[in-house]
Amino acid sequence: MKRFLILTFVFFLGSFLYSDSERKPVPLKRGSGADVLYFDFGETAPTSFFQSEKLQEPKLEDLKLGFLDAAPGYYSGPDGGEVYQWAKNHYQWKRADGSVFTEWPTGIFKLDFPTGIGFVFAPTPSSCNGCSPTLVWNYPDNTKITKYWISNRKEYDTTFQKPLEFQNYLLVNESQFGKPKLELSNLVFYGSEKWSEFLRVFGDEVKTKTLFSYLKQEFGFENRGKIPVLLFDEYVTAKEYVGFDLPGALPGELGLGGKDAIVLCCGEQMPEKTGNPNFDADSLRRVNFSMAIQKLTRNAEQVSCLKTIAETGKAPNQEIMDPWFEEGFASYIESRFSDRKRVWLYMETEKLIRENKVPKNFKSLVDAKYKDNIPYLIGAILVKHLHDVYGKDTITSYQKETCLGLDSTLA
Prior knowledge:
Blueprint: H1 2-21, E1 24-25, H2 49-52, H3 60-63, E2 73-76, E3 82-87, E4 90-94, E5 100-103, E6 109-112, E7 118-122, E8 134-138, E9 144-150, E10 155-162, E11 167-170, H4 174-177, E12 182-184, E13 187-190, H5 196-205, H6 208-219, E14 227-232, H7 235-242, E15 255-257, E16 262-265, H8 277-285, H9 291-312, H10 323-337, H11 339-354, H12 362-368, H13 374-390, H14 392-403
Parallel strand pairs: 1-2, 13-14, 14-16
Antiparallel strand pairs: 2-3, 3-4, 4-5, 5-6, 6-7, 7-8, 8-9, 9-10, 10-11, 12-13, 15-16
């Protein structure tokens, strides 16, 4: 019996070694004699744009294997590593340096290391003509560096992402925007000298700590990472940057509270210091500083949405377009911190009522989109009503459901 077990073990071992040695070799597609390329993405994620520009970017042609047929099975890679092919353009290569390269028929590929560091390449959607792929570098602490192609500017934006810790921000190209003009808490401002007076008093005019504390305690919305604030002098350049008309109910509050950064406009309308204290103080009183509250609120809500997506592992299956809530919530929060905004909100809403322009049902509210400033007025009033009557949980549940692309029970 013992002899039989030994012979059986030797037989299976010999079969395994024989089958391994008999695996068909598969070369690199770029040439059977080409060198195998190895990559190093660093141990930690870069935290600046210039550091991110030094990241190695593997190309599919660097790694792709040149199979002669699509037969499923085991093969031997050009470095001797094990390869398994499921189908044409769908295989995995365990490379000599410990990394694992996987290609899918969709054109997606990834390169993973045992340390948890990795790279993902997502090809351009067929609907986006002239676009470039999305590139993602992953790190063991759940940090991602993502390069998104911005079609209107025909260039990449690079973001630092750690969604489980409420962090998502643009790595600002300082050769384009210059050095920061002001760093206040986690806000980093970039702009020209036209914004000097605005920035000089910003900390006194906008109580960011109070705002952030309220958003966190009341709704669980926060942003623990950097918040780049891009200050544009002219509307046309700001519009060219974001790719569409800047949202805002008033000329003095045009901007965008994006998930990666905040855009504010316009420096050419900002007061300049004259040397006359009374005149300068009067000019600053005319500046709508509370617009920053609105944009910061939108930013915190969106970063919190990214945290929800990462936490649940559920990617949205549809995008819920609801400016009544997105802008209405931000406008409502702004009105809580600004008497000027609150007075404007009620006056303009009363005007809509007199002119019979208030939507009659939820569908007409959604269909109205930005018409007649409805999101900033009726949206804000509706959010206030929900908050006052049904409580904060109604706000947070709606935000989470729509964030995940689900039809909300509230709707």
